[in-house]
Amino acid sequence: MKRKEFLHLSAMSIGAMMLPKFSLLGNPITAEEALYEGLDVSTKKALADVALQAATSKGATYADIRIGRYLNQFVTTREKKVQGIANTESLGVGIRVIANGSWGFAATNSFTKEDIARTAEKAVAVAKANSKIITEPVQLAPQKGYGEVTWKTPVEQNAFTVPVKDKVDLLLQANGIAMQGGASFVNSAILAVNEQKYFASTDGSYIDQDIHRIFPTFTVTKIDRASNKFQSRKSLSAPSGMGYEYLTPLADTRVAGIVTRYKGRYDLLEDIKNATADVEQKLKAKSVEPGKYDLVLDPSHLWLTIHESVAHPTELDRVLGYEANYAGTSFLTLDKWKAGNFKFGSDLVNIVGDKLQPGSLGAVGYDDEGVKCKEWDIIKNGVLVNYQAIRDQAHIIGLKESQGCCYAQTWADVQFQRMPNVSLRPGTSPLSVDDMIKNVEKGIYIVGDGSFSIDQQRYNFQFGGQTFYEIKNGKIVGMLNDVAYQANTQEFWNSCTAIADASDYRLGGAFNDGKGQPSQSNAVSHGSSTTRFNGVNVINTARKI
Amino acid sequence: MAILTKEQAQTLLKKVLSYSKADECEVGLNGSEGGNIRYARNAVSTAGDISNLTLSVSATFGKKTGTATINEFSDAALERVVRRAEELAQLAPENPEYVPLLGPQTYKESITWVPATAAITPDTRAEAVAKSIKVAKEANLQSAGYIENTSSFTAMANSKGLFAYNKDTDVVFSITTRNEAGTGSGYAARGYNDISKLDTHSATKISASKANGSAGARAIEPGKYTVILEPVAGAYMLENMFRGLDARSADEGRSFMSKPGGGNRLGEQLMDEKVNLYSDPFNAELPSNTWSRDGFPLERTSWIDKGVVKNLAYNRYWAQQKNVQPVPFPSNMIMTGGDASLEELIKSTEKGILISRLWYIRMVDPQSLLLTGLTRDGTFYIENGQIKFPIKNMRFNESPVIMLNNVEALGKPERTISIESYRSYLIPPMKIRDFTFTSLSDAI
């Protein structure tokens, strides 16, 4: 985060701890203003046609326009206090063109026809200037126009229509449960996002979309001053492509086990009670003996390992070197894909990319370059078979059409290749988590995501978690502390020996995944069932200062 | 124009305050102009120009505060944003930690604005990038890099008569060069207030020599080693510690600065005697903002003196609770060192590892500030005072606090940037014993 943004953030008294990567381009607005529906579709279409016309008349061979209204709401609290309430809005137009074989982009927050035409012309001018220093012209995969279409996240309750007071009351009630249960501190927040985007292109698409995301989260901390130790436990919620209904649990929401986990919906009040009991236990838990363990990883944990070690290295722009100076490159080079037999993981490992799964952060009807969303295999029976690509990359991996992975964080940012949902398919034979644990002689069962770090080509990683349970001879015998596992991506996925069946399949996700320079944020889910990995190296992270 | 002069900013903010009916009102202005070029595979990939000016208004009734911002500047818009902040304040819950606003303060003029940087044009950026790409091509390497320049100002005023203004210029540049075979990679990063100090040609040369020099790396056994951290590596490691120089989290018992039994580690010898950390907005090499965001004038402040914790930041609320003077968070951070060059530090090393850059540092345990991350873009084995051969990258698990207890020698401080926050620091190359590597990485 840049310093200026930080100042702006502080001015709004938002708990900075909870909101490390939010785009703060927006201006605070009231809840009523958030419900304003904005420009009607016919006005947007007319403005879009102005832009497309202006761009082509100046020599663009392709043009697209995104008219966007981006709403964010943050409600953050600690203990009995509300730290911040902010509604932000950002409204404007981004125009992207190809001219002389090169991309150009320009954006404006003005909605006059004159300014939109001028912005389109500026994008063409940028493209022409850049065309002098490109090495090869852009090759765009063909895309049919869809005409006028719409898509909407199927929300039951728009989070922006829920009064702020209800959110504050829920969070303060949750904080109260933690403090009564003996927590020393508690932070909690509800974050909501609504992207209202209109896309039009010279291919003949006019796509109107209304996209919703929500993320309730907390951290409970307990301190033992005598030993000068403290432990925290984060919520086991999953940021979701849903409305406020995510916070209303249903009969089948709870996944029973050593600690309750959640599927599809979330019970904040129950989870914070459990978290408070967990921090108490964590303070007393024994420190792990380093060595090789069989790991049983819950989906609330495994999503992050999938995100870092599978989803990032299969981003085609990283593979090609476009992220070399920032996010890095990838060990999954094109030759490994071309070989057709690169064993990424064991035969059980089937990884799929999609932007369709209901409730997922990646679910949209069409991506930010007007490609209808789909599903495809990335790893099949352990073998690397595909990447994540957009229109100007499709030809590089022999595709006739884009996989629909294009996204921009706001209207003001140029769209580029971003991660879709990348998920591990569940096991095909019936297998419950209990049955999986029964077969583990010496292992650790990990719930929740924690510390994470991985190298720039995605070979070597280290992950922590929220709670760690020691498994001895098929039984959970107690909690462990100071656990982190380190592995090589390919060795790790080849050590995958069991995946629970579809009844255990759940989504986790990243609300703000960063990539690009200047950095842009993306939201993405990763689904899996509980999975076992054999003989993974576990280190002890306790130190004294 | 997004950059207002001090007088223009003051006139505008006074006008905004004149609309306020709240008990207390604080108004802020942020304006910035700048641009960037991103390149990869020896060609430009994206470029942009950005300009923005934002006004924020915080209105308070009793202990209830509301904030609103706007980027329109007609009289009607200014009044509207004040009314909106006041409406939000009336709806907001009471903030028990609200502290009344500060009165007028005296600030010295900052030295953060460099006209030459403010005058950067798209052509200046393109030329800087062209120079870098040329070096890479001549060395048969693939370059990927980024240049961004920003001119900005910040001003604040409040209903008690406080007015503060600062303007600054920044330019950051980073470059990664890789060989065609993908067996070698190098990096360099620069950040300045003054564009005339930026030499993309020489930075790319350094990156290129690291790329060529790192090819053919050998594996060594992970474990504890003496390391020499170049400033860009050291700054990234230490930045994670600077954020923790806060009294409240320490007093609350949830920081590495917490003292067993209660309180914080102020006055404790926490690090080696060679370690001195201070902030100073008037440092000629690393000038920074001269006031904190709650309006305090910033002066030279010692944080760690000969290894002893001299100061922790106290915001006004926490200072009141603890009955001490507030200590604002600093706007820069400087670590002192010696006169030795990096080469001299290498020469004085019998066995060790030179670390060019660190990557993906994340907190493992906030109690000990244990961090994990990896080496990247040039890691070399040193024997008998010479670089012997490149070695494969490794993952470390180490606490900067433990690291600063194991200081063997410090070199001459250099201005460098954190590769994650892009903030600039003045940090010496550091020779550290017993730095803990826990595994090997195949990444290049």
From TrEMBL, chain B:
Residues 222-438 form the Metalloprotease TldD/E C-terminal domain. InterPro entries: Metalloprtase-TldD/E_C, Metalloprtase-TldD/E_N, TldD/PmbA_N, TldD/PmbA_sf. It comes from the Bacteria. This is TldD protein. Belongs to the peptidase U62 family. Residues 25-89 form the Metalloprotease TldD/E N-terminal domain. PANTHER family: CONSERVED PROTEIN, TLDD PROTEIN. GO terms for molecular function: metallopeptidase activity. Gene3D superfamilies: PmbA/TldD superfamily. One of its GO terms (biological process) is proteolysis.
